Amino acid sequence: MRRGVGVRAVVYDRYGFPDVLHVEDVAGVLIRLAAEGLSGIYHVSGSEPFSRYDLNKLLVGCIQAVDPAVKAPVERCSLRDIGFIEQRPLNTSLAVEKLVRAIDYPLRPMMQICREIAETEFGTPSSGATRRN
After folding, report:
1. 7-122 CATH
2. How far apart are CA 68 and CA 82, in angstroms?
């Protein structure tokens, strides 16, 4: 993105709860589960369904809010356009109900995570300067 190179194809029609979470949120969930003495399999995932395309648009929008010079064109594609041998499901959401029933631990919304990434990697809107690595 820093060089203006876009993403060639991002799937727009496959939805799921993002497996992109803030590491502090995942650690907090694990600590809380252990503190409660809970065991078993728990899906830890965001609560907002996104396609990879929509998630990419959200991240790029947050980056452009702090660094308008960033250009990241994205070419959309359908999951069906990719030549898999077998068909893939369009909904890959994880069932987080067990975790929600077990503990009350709010995860950061994807918008907040994208803003934090944008500010950490590209600067802050108030600073007027951008961070380039």
Report:
1. 3.40.50.720
2. 32
Hunting for tokens 């993403």 — which residue is that? Answer: 7
What letter represents residue 120's amino acid?
Answer: T
**DSSP string for the chain:** -TT---EEEEESS-EE--S---HHHHHHHHHHHHHTT--S------SS-EEHHHHHHHHHHHHHHH-TT----EEEE-GGGS--SS---SB-----HHHHHH---PPPPHHHHHHHHHHHHH--TTT------
- Residues 27-37, buried b or exposed e (16+ Cβ, 10 A)? ebbeeebeeee
- What's the predicted TM-score (pTM) here? 0.76
pLDDT tens-digit profile of 75-103?
Answer: 888 888 888 888 888 888 888 889 999 99
CB 129 within 8 A of CB 123: yes
Q: Which residue has the tokens 């995860």?
A: 107
